[in-house]
Amino acid sequence: MGRITDTVKTLLIINVLFFIGSQTLGDAAYKLFALWFPKNENFQIWQLVTHMFMHSQSSITHIFFNMFMLYMFGSHLENSIGQKKFLFLYFSAGLGAMGLQLLYYYYNFQPGYEGFIAAGFTDNEIIGFLKEGRYNTAVLEFVSEESIANTFGAYRSLMVGASGAISGVIVAFAVLYPNLPLYLMFVPIPIKAKYMVGFYFIIDLFGGITGQSIIGTSNVAHWAHIGGAVIGFITMWYWKKNSFNQNRWS
């Protein structure tokens, strides 16, 4: 896809350094820099940004695939829209991904939490239950065990990875070059960018709704991918529609 830009090179280096550091520090790195559910005691404000540079500790394929996609599409996109707009899109997509995934976690968290409140427990008592991994069965008069399990699951959830930001980059690329032929790995058949990206978006939408992954592991943050993709699409569609720099669209 052409010469790698300094911006993409810097992002690649930061991600790799974070990955090496997380392998060295182990759980301590994830406690500090992964994004924890906001009600979890491990949550810190800087995690809103640092989680974008963290990746799965147990599988190198997570960071490899993300960095490969950033390498393939990032430099070409930056050369088309400029460094400032590329960085704006990258981090906006990452934050959009985070926002939608957190909404999903809150959607799972809230019914069980409200059940605890209805049962007469205070906020401090509920947080104590969540920390200790146990609960008073009196709450089951007000909410189902499934809802309680979802509340505990959301409380313990954490987000890592650049996938949301990179989803935004890939979708923006497809908006800018919708008819450019691309190739899937190991499939020597050209597919227009708009169709390939649309295919992956549908897969993520299916996974987000059903909780089942067609491609990849079951713990994929599908709503984060969707959030990043939506921000990437809206941002690039707006820029292209308004032709912020006529010379770049010629």
Structural notes for this entry:
The strands form 2 sheets. Strands 1-2 form a two-stranded antiparallel sheet. The protein is mainly α and 250 residues long. The chain is elongated, with a radius of gyration of 20 Å. Helices cover 65% and strands 6% of the residues. β3 and β4 form a beta hairpin. α9 runs antiparallel to α10 (222-242).
Helix count, per DSSP?
Answer: 10
Widest sheet: strand order?
1-2
Question: What is the H-and-E element order?
Answer: HHEHHHHHEHEEHH
Strand-pairing-aware structural class: mainly alpha
Mean residue pLDDT: 89
Poorly predicted regions: none
* Count of β-strands: 4
Helix content: 55-70%
Summarize the topology.
Elements: H1 6-25, H2 27-33, E1 35-36, H3 47-50, H4 60-81, H5 83-118, H6 123-132, H7 145-155, E2 158-159, H8 163-176, E3 181-184, E4 187-192, H9 193-210, H10 222-242
Antiparallel strand pairs: 1-2, 3-4
Helix pairs in contact: 1-2, 1-4, 4-5, 4-8, 5-7, 5-8, 5-10, 8-10, 9-10
Main features:
single chain, 250 residues, mainly alpha, two-stranded antiparallel sheet, 4 strands, 65% helix, 6% strand, elongated
